[in-house]
């Protein structure tokens, strides 16, 4: 790891209200004609000349007598447009010319929150390695919204993005542990870490097996916070770089493997939301942090390893390592019998084939949890989709020579068989959900630059008060 500071976490925040701030009028297509009649004649003529029609994210800056912007019109588009392109309006606000702005009128509460959060998320810049120009438009917190809560959510998302975007040279197991310890110190959480051969003494053998070939010792990071309320345990895959091990990935497949700790980054982002909000619960975060490297002591195809719970696993592909490190962490988590157990991991290419990069698929047997997540995902514009724990596929992960197979042959239902594998280790926790995320924005979109991204954590955060009622 280079001696290069991580830098302070970028707080994403609204500006203070300013007298004379430029008003923003949000106008739907069907209200465009009426809006023109309420404008001064010269302003209406200007908007009509520029063919402003209220389309989603459409911007028309109306000049004042001195030539500077006096009012801004931004199109709301229709409900279908907003469903197709989330955060477009907030991103349009962030792209406005330098100045102080305020939103004059807001739509319904859900759309208003999406617009405000979209603005905040559009402020994000990853500037650790190259200076980035900040957004020059400063927006005052819209009235009627819990602005401080939105700022906490956006700042947690910024942390997740920073962690994923940082290359493995500067975000190996050591640096990931340092990031977790910094977060714990900020909120008064406790941290215990188990390193290297001590993992064997602590009966965490699969984490040791996967990470032992790296120069940076494998470890299990354990953070706890809160002293009352229901218990929530988050488990995040922290494979800081994945070469594929002895089943070496081709170069093209290795290019994005700095993001293979995206599960860890996402659970840390969710933990930050929970702690900064002060939710009344007992939080535990478990992160197996490793590098899947190649050396003389790397684990091999054909090996049979024993997990924390005594189950044996045949290693049919060293590139299916994420489920191995999660297995030990889930066993440890389940021993405490938390009220809710969540795992998040960049686990399978099959999940991407199924739902693409924009949707976070999740698995759970809990109907109430599934319904709450699906509803909250729509409310906060954080798309998720439920996939099944299809029990008849259990036979696909049972190789015969050992209890489980880490890489079933045939290539069918890869996301489901991986989730079924993990479920074996999450028992006896009564409520369990697994998220198979991508944690990466492959091309720039409104409020989401190309790079690391949070997936599913805002939906989870919104659902927690409901699904963890005491």
TrEMBL record:
Cellular component GO terms, alphabetical: cytoplasm
InterPro entries assigned to the protein according to its UniProt record, in alphabetical order: Leucine_aapep/pepB, Macro_dom-like, Peptidase_M17_C, Peptidase_M17_N_1
One record GO biological process: proteolysis
Pfam annotation, one family: Peptidase_M17
Residue intervals of the Cytosol aminopeptidase domain: 317-324
CDD domains according to UniProt: Peptidase_M17
EC number in record: 3.4.11.23
Keywords, comma-separated and alphabetical: Aminopeptidase, Hydrolase, Manganese, Protease
GO molecular function: manganese ion binding; metalloaminopeptidase activity
Superkingdom, taxonomy of origin: Bacteria
Family: Belongs to the peptidase M17 family.
Protein name per UniProt: Peptidase B
Source organism: Roseicyclus elongatus DSM 19469
């Amino acid at each position: 790891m280079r001696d290069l500071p991580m830098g302070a976490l970028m707080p994403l925040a609204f500006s203070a209200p300013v007298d004379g701030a430029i008003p923003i009028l949000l106008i739907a297509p069907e209200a465009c004609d009426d809006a023109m009649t309420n404008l001064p004649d010269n302003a209406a003529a200007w908007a009509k000349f520029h063919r402003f029609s209220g389309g989603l994210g459409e911007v028309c800056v109306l000049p004042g007598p001195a030539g500077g912007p006096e009012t801004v019109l931004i199109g709301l588009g229709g409900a279908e447009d907003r469903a197709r392109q989330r955060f477009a309006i907030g991103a349009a606000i962030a792209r406005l010319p330098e100045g102080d702005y305020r939103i004059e009128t807001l739509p319904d509460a859900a759309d208003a929150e999406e617009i405000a959060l979209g603005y905040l998320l559009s402020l994000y810049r990853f500037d650790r390695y190259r200076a980035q120009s900040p957004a020059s438009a400063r927006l005052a917190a819209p009235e009627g919204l819990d602005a401080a809560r939105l700022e906490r959510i956006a700042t947690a998302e910024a942390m997740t993005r920073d962690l994923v975007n940082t290359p493995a040279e500067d975000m190996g197991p050591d640096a990931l542990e340092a990031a977790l310890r910094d977060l714990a110190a900020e909120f008064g959480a406790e941290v215990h870490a188990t390193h290297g051969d001590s993992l064997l003494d602590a009966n965490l053998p699969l984490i040791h097996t996967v990470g032992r070939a790296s120069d940076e010792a494998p470890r299990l990071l354990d953070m706890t916070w809160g002293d009352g309320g229901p218990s929530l345990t988050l488990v995040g895959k922290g494979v800081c770089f994945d070469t594929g091990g002895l089943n070496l990935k081709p170069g093209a497949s290795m290019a994005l493997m700095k993001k293979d700790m995206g599960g860890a980054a996402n659970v840390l982002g969710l933990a930050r939301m929970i702690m900064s909000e002060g939710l009344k619960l007992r939080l535990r975060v478990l992160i197996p942090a490793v590098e899947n490297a190649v050396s003389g002591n790397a684990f091999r195809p054909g090996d049979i390893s024993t997990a924390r719970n005594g189950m044996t696993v045949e290693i049919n592909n060293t590139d299916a390592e994420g489920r191995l490190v999660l297995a030990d962490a889930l066993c440890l988590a389940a021993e405490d019998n938390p009220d809710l157990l969540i795992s998040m991991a960049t686990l399978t290419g099959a999940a991407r084939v199924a739902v693409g990069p924009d949707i976070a698929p999740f698995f759970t047997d809990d109907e109430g949890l599934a319904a709450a997540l699906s509803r909250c995902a729509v409310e906060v514009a954080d798309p998720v989709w439920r996939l099944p724990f299809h029990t008849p596929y259990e036979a696909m992960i049972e190789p015969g020579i050992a209890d489980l197979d880490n890489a079933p042959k045939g290539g069918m239902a890869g996301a489901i068989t991986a989730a079924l594998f993990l479920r074996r280790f999450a028992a006896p926790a009564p409520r369990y959900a697994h998220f198979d995320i991508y944690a990466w924005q492959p091309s720039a979109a409104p409020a989401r630059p190309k790079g690391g991204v949070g997936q599913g954590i805002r939906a989870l955060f919104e659902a927690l008060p409901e699904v963890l009622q005491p």
